[in-house]
Amino acid sequence: MNHDELDAELDSFGDALASATRVTPGNALRPEDIAVGGAKPSEDVARYALTLGDDALILAQRLSHWISRAPELEEDIALGNIALDVLGHARSFLTYAGLAWDKTEDDLAYWREEDDFTSLWIVEQPNGHFGVTIIRQLIVSIFQHLLYSKLTESADETLAAICAKAVKEVDYHRDHAIQWTVRLGLGTEESAAKMRHALEILWPYVDEMFQDQELHRKLDGIAVLPSSLREDWDKEITAVLADSGLEIPKTGQAMANGRGGEHSEHLGFILAEMQVLARKHPGASW
Amino acid sequence: MSQQSNWPLWEVFVRSSRGLSHVHAGSLHAPDAQMAVRNARDLYTRRNEGVSLWVVKSEDIISSDPDEKDAFFESPQGKDYRHATYYKASEGVKHL
Fold it and tell me: Containing H/E element for B28?
């Protein structure tokens, strides 16, 4: 057998060989599946899914702003990946919520006003320098990791399925934030000072994350009481900060009421940028 | 961006599925090994390319010298007898 014959023989195995290395998207619950096959949620479940979706949507919008601006090329892609993961969670939650009101994810993202958004204040806080974004990620991703872990046991099957996918992703986001917090906290004097500053400006938005609402109590077995996550969250973040030579700052707490549609001055600007294209060209597609 | 030169270069090897070898995928900059493997995850496995990653500091890889190519790699050329296809099965061997 000469080389040409050998090549021909290898080619004949083509499909079998390729199948071992072929790259496929894999299987996971997608927003498109929820839109087509998802059970219609009750009004209360939809309102709850909306809060989770709004947190994710606004955080994704904030994180996407880092694309092309991160301190390193590798970090640019890391933050972009995280933003896309979080946007994916937003799409699933909003798609599911929208089924209750015959609205699409886009209707909810682009055609609601500022006071219709139920997101937490922490996610709308400005990116600031890299350390501020990392501390915001640390605060939010530890929270989301605990929350989504518990929601995988929700009596609402769609919420449980969305969270089963999302929890693995926020686990990585949490790890990413921890890695950087440790390195910057123990880095140079300047990096440590910047991390302390980041903690001071973001800590006032921590308590809001753990406030129970009437809606949470009504959805017993479906929703998770945010206050039930506080102890684990405190323990985890305190340990990370201790490993990083940092500590919880002594700050007051903001009178935040994002769940009630009252927002800090930042959300309006975020929405203006996020919604302008959809509103200028309604129904446009490509 | 000016800091990038302070970060060492790492070579990334990805195993696409169980049973296959790790294959060189490319390189990246990272401050340390732990971050290198995370950056590798973000850069080289975002389309479901891998189930396992190795990172190695580029400076730790000892490579053959391109100038020594003739001395290193030309010797096997023309030595057909080193390939199984060179040999004919003996008539007496029926099931080869």
Answer: strand B23-29
